[in-house]
Design goal:
It is built from ten helices and 14 strands. It has 319 residues and is an alpha/beta fold. Strand 8, helix 4 and strand 9 form a beta-alpha-beta unit. The longest helix is centred in the C-terminal third of the chain and has 24 residues.
């Protein structure tokens, strides 16, 4: 069965970036256009899956349903501690975690860091493992008073929502004057996004850069105060970029390279690391070994330069 493409929305402001599909879970063979707005430079999937249909692309593996509460808390602990370092820059108070999943980070902040916590989760599929104050549904319907939170976090959430500006408007509504929102998103102006196609299409509906996210924040009266890139909050390494170059120069199709490198639980990394166009390659194995040595060093350089794939911003609501 061949790939089928959704019919694009005809916008005069569209500039094509790439055509991509669900290379992670292989839900279907639909090709999605990833386009940039010529006016505001925002990058997005266009057309998008209908909102009532997007749940098809969130498989059980996405929610890691095989973990019990103890395992979930333990597996999340390194990331929770890294996230806590961001939150603990501010006086302890009331924290809202939007897209809180099963509440692992909330529980860490409550039990280990002494914060009062609440959460919003859009899907009812993740269980509330720790009996926390979690609202399931649309952020607009969340039953929390306006201006009631000192810090709001969105860890790898904003790229998944259909209207990120609307989301930020609600963040502004729930933040106290002087409160801070902390947002983690993939950075589209990176080798990983532009060359290696690491954005998780179609689950990632919007692809941000520092410029486009900063503009969206300011449009919602949220002032960016700190930007950083790093691998401690979420994985986003450049690992494998030399493999990509060798395979592309050899004419291997991008769809096949992505299938080897991205598909969940497919076990095709040996092929990605040692085969070119289906044939064993001693040269690629040497390249892959060098890439494994070089990638973490290059990650640190790119992160320090602010062009790493995982981008975090702190933005403040004016007092």
């Amino acid at each position: 069965m061949g790939r089928r493409a959704l019919q694009p929305v005809r916008l005069r402001t569209r500039e094509p970036c790439v055509h991509d599909s669900d290379n992670r879970f292989l839900t279907d063979q639909v090709d999605f256009n990833v386009v940039r707005c010529a006016k505001c430079s925002l990058v997005r999937v266009d057309p998008r899956p209908p909102e009532e249909d997007i749940h098809r692309y969130y498989h059980d593996d996405f929610y890691r349903g095989q973990e019990n509460p103890k395992e979930a808390l333990r597996n999340m602990e390194p990331r929770s501690r890294a996230m806590a370092e961001h939150v603990n820059r501010y006086p302890r108070g009331r924290l809202l975690d939007i897209g809180c999943f099963r509440g692992e980070f909330m529980e860490h902040m409550r039990a280990e860091q002494g914060w009062e916590v609440a959460g919003v989760e859009f899907s009812e599929r993740p269980p509330n493992y720790f009996g926390l104050d979690i609202f399931y549904g649309d952020i607009a319907d969340a039953p929390y008073p306006e201006q009631s939170f000192d810090v709001i976090t969105l860890w790898a959430v904003l790229e998944h929502v259909y209207d990120p500006s609307r989301m930020l408007a609600h963040v502004h509504r729930f933040l106290k004057p002087g409160g801070v929102v902390i947002i983690l998103v993939p950075n589209f102006n990176t080798i990983q996004a532009r060359f290696m196609w690491q954005d998780d299409v179609p689950r990632h509906l919007t692809m941000f850069t520092r410029g486009t996210l900063g503009r969206m924040l300011r449009n919602n009266s949220l002032v960016p105060v700190d930007w950083s890139c790093g691998q401690d909050l979420c994985p986003g390494s450049i690992r494998g970029w030399l493999n990509f170059i060798v395979k592309r120069l050899a004419g291997e199709p991008m769809s096949e390279i992505l299938a080897q490198n991205r598909t969940a639980d497919c076990g095709r990394w040996p092929e990605f690391a040692g085969y070119v166009n289906g044939r064993e390659s001693a040269f690629l194995r040497r390249v892959d070994a060098f890439d494994g040595w070089l990638a973490p060093r290059l990650d640190r350089v790119l992160d320090r330069m602010g062009v790493g794939f995982i981008m975090t911003v702190h933005a403040r609501k004016p007092s």
